[in-house]
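Lecture notes, unit on protein representations.

Consider one protein chain, 251 amino acids long.
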Amino acid sequence: MRNFAEGCRFAWNKTLVAQKKLLEAAQSCMNYSTMAAELVKWKQQEETAFLKEVNSQILQQKLMDLYQELQEAFDKTNPKQFPRFKKKGRSIDSFRYPQGFKIEEGNNRIFLPEIGWVRYINSRKIEGTPVNVTVKRDGEHWYVSIQTELEIEEPVHASKSNIEIDKGITQFATLSDGTEILPINSFAKHESKLRKEQRKLSRKTKYSNNWKKQVKKVQKCHKRIRDVLNDVLQKATTEISKKHAIIVLKT
């Protein structure tokens, strides 16, 4: 799984380099078909032949994601951030299977092509027809997300009220009814420990065993910060969405 994730990260970064060179030369970006053709060429080259060991579908899915982000970045009506390089040890590694997987929910195991059967802890009952699975590594742990298709009735919100949310500076956000959401200080709370672990990492010989152990400690600090941030955001957004049918964000 680590090799597959690193192969996807490599394909993303190498393709993004090529796309940026085209833009610097005032040329159009490659479409998905051209990117997929380049991927085939890389597998035939000696220095990038290791990509042959990575499942072809997950590499193609990663290039589809990159192409989607490029399109969104150049969308004149609602442009989004230009794709970024995925840094080793800093980005969350992931790959997605569009088909070929099998799930035995009763036995808590999933079959991943070219990896085999893997046991997992099921957090909830799977509803609907699985259409793809995404495997990701966050820190030292691996997770699998199963996307399904399911027909449901269109929900009707119990409330008919609406609310405006204004992102602030001294406060994280202020609601139009006067409610204030306090700033999220998860990074400030853990930054001293993170800074300490990063200093230790800078003194290690790169790619040595001690360096790899220290990388895991730094990743653990980053994950802790993300977890605290996500927990606060999810609790706040859940409470707001339960109380109001329409939410407007002021930008």
